[in-house]
Amino acid sequence: MELLSTSARDLDRAAEAIRAGLLVAIPTETVYGLGADAWNRVALARVFEAKRRPSFDPLIVHVAEPAGASEVADLSARYAATLAERFWPGPLTMVLPKRERVPDLATSGLPTVAVRCPANAVAREIIRRSGVPVAAPSANPFGYLSPTRAEHVVAQLGDRVDFIVDGGRCPVGVESTVLDLSTDEPLVLRPGGLPVELIAEVIPGVRVYDRATTSPSAPGQLPSHYAPSRPLYLVPHGGVAGIEPRGRAAALCFGSDAAKSAERGGRWSRIIDLSPSMDPVEAAATLFDALHELDAAGFDELWAERLPDEGLGRAVNDRLYKASVK
Ligand code: AMP
Ligand code: MG
User: 270 in a domain, yes or no?
Assistant: First the structure.
């Protein structure tokens, strides 16, 4: 594995590597992606191997320009063009009928493909220079925390990836919002970096996948996603202060009031406040960093409080739920 910078020369090397069928971890505004040429079946197979990812979990195909999406997907579905116009480049992934040329490995054999134009300038430049759409799942082993810094990728994938482009910290910090437009009724499959409320401005009353009421067969809804290696318990907002943890424990709080009352209890070895001012955007940006830190520190127990279920709070709650002990 070789670390690359964001110099023009290194971006060219990253793009050449992708064209040559190698794996390149690239920064995006959401999390680091493990990029490969979406047309190249061998490269796609290497992505699954590097991630130890079950092949039934399809990949998101990234394009440099919104217009490039029509190379991989059919954007004639209702709302698709409007959403692309309004939210691309950005943290929205649309699931649409795939073009025939897209290999089954990228879609797990589904007739649909997930496509996105990321907002990160480095990602777009690498994709543009490579001249191909880039399939990129999050650059972590399957079931582990998503990487929000190049160091996370180095630690988690190391030599299983050929190059890692260090573009600094990912500003959004949670994965993209996945919206399925391939059926008559649009459905948010995964809350993420684009708030559902903004999608609802285009698709009034858009449905959000709900474990309790929707079929569990939607891809990517495996309950063990994003697991830290320590047990993580989820409590309602403000609930951490009332917990009596066992052993050396850490708490993830939301807001300085919650963090202060947890501190007063004196039971925590470490308290991380995801956002002292209770801004869910800041909490999303800090979440995986915080989980990586707590995971590495080897606490006996992790406790986290939920955020109010609005805006990016939904995405944070979804990741906390998936990371938690059920
Ligand atoms: P990741 O690449 O790790 O951010 O995860 C990609 C996620 O996108 C998958 O886990 C699925 O939830 C979703 N996805 C990708 N392709 C499809 C598809 N064709 N149909 C439904 N969901 C998809
Ligand atoms: Mg992932």
Answer: yes
pLDDT in tens, 29-66: 999 999 999 999 889 988 988 998 766 679 999 999 99
Give me the helices (H) in 75-114, please.
80-87, 104-107
pTM as predicted: 0.88
Do residues 71 and 187 share a domain?
yes
| Nearest residue by C-alpha to atom 7 in ligand 1 | 220
Q: Work out which ligand 1 atom sits closest to the CA atom of 114.
A: 16
CA-based R_g, the chain, Å: 19
Positive or negative torsion for Cα 227, 88, 188, 133: negative
Q: Containing domain of residue 310, as a range?
A: 232-323
β-sheet bridge partners, residue 187: 180, 207
How far away, in angstroms, is 97 Cα from ligand 2 center? 21
DSSP 8-state code for residue 306: P
pLDDT tens across 261-278, in order?
A: 999 988 999 999 999 999
184 CA to centre of ligand 2 in angstroms:
26
Rounded Cα–Cα distance for residues 297 and 48 (Å) = 28
Residue 55: inside a domain: yes
